[in-house]
């Protein structure tokens, strides 16, 4: 009889616990339609940056970085058969590492190699080149594919990382990515506050 009383008491606790659980949930309400619409507007700003050649040319699926500039009718595969290393390294193969040609700063002549001390391809799972807005959005939100980052950390990376920052200071003859690192950081924060909707 005593055992039954204890069981009943703990069952009651479970019920009480279940009753208060939703109130403790940080985000119980689904975002309103107005929030979603605002979030999608912010996403368009973010997408314009991530899909821009200054960003997408290193975030490729087929291990070949891309070149593009005003003189090229279309973006094309990087010359010299440059590609990801056989060991998966974003720095390329031994003998033709990125930093053979890409130095710490931009070359000052048009068509000279742009520069940054971390210059290398993005990891294979971070693919934007040739991907739709929906696909890029899903990738950025997926910790399995974004380097294990929360969206706050993705925003911070855009704000602070020097390789990302290169996209707004790409050297002579190259159009910078739209806006600035600061504006993109703020747009990501507003997008997250609106529930981070994807198209
Ligand atoms: C020279 C090649 C290169 C260029 C150009 C480049 N990236 Fe990347 N990107 C990388 C590498 C390498 C990583 C992996 C770094 C890490 O995870 O710490 C990365 C990772 C990221 C990440 C974190 C992972 C993710 O999927 O969320 C973001 C965000 C990002 N880049 C944004 C940008 C933006 C925005 C631009 C343009 C303004 C840009 N990148 C241009 C190479 C590049
Ligand atoms: C043999 C020299 C050489 C090597 C090695 C090399 N690059 Fe380049 N890269 C260049 C030159 C030169 C340009 C400028 C081309 C132009 O603007 O016409 C360039 C441009 C680029 C661009 C274009 C930037 C843009 O947005 O238009 C990317 C991306 C790039 N390289 C990535 C890489 C990566 C990643 C590696 C290593 C895996 C690498 N490169 C290795 C010479 C090289």
UniProtKB/TrEMBL annotation:
<feature type="signal peptide">
    <location>
        <begin position="1"/>
        <end position="23"/>
    </location>
</feature>
<keyword id="KW-0732">Signal</keyword>
<dbReference type="InterPro" id="IPR036280">
    <property type="entry name" value="Multihaem_cyt_sf"/>
</dbReference>
<protein>
    <submittedName>
        <fullName>Uncharacterized protein</fullName>
    </submittedName>
</protein>
């Amino acid at each position: 009889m005593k055992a039954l009383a204890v069981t009943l008491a703990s069952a009651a606790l479970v019920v009480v616990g279940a009753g208060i659980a939703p109130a403790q949930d940080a985000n119980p309400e689904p975002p309103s339609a107005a929030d979603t619409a605002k979030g999608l507007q912010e996403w368009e700003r973010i997408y314009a940056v991530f899909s821009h050649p200054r960003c997408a040319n290193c975030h490729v699926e087929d291990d070949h970085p891309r070149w593009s500039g005003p003189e090229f009718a279309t973006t094309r595969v990087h010359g010299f058969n440059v590609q990801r290393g056989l060991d998966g390294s974003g720095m390329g193969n031994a003998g033709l590492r990125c930093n053979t040609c890409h130095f710490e700063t931009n070359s000052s002549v048009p068509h000279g190699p742009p520069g940054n001390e971390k210059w290398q391809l993005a990891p294979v799972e971070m693919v934007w080149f040739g991907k739709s807005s929906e696909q890029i959005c899903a990738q950025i939100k997926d910790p399995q594919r974004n380097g294990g980052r929360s969206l706050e950390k993705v925003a911070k990376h855009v704000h602070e990382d020097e390789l990302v920052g290169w996209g707004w200071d790409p050297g002579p003859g190259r159009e910078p990515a739209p806006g600035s690192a600061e504006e993109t950081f703020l747009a990501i924060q507003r997008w997250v506050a609106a529930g981070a909707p994807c198209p």
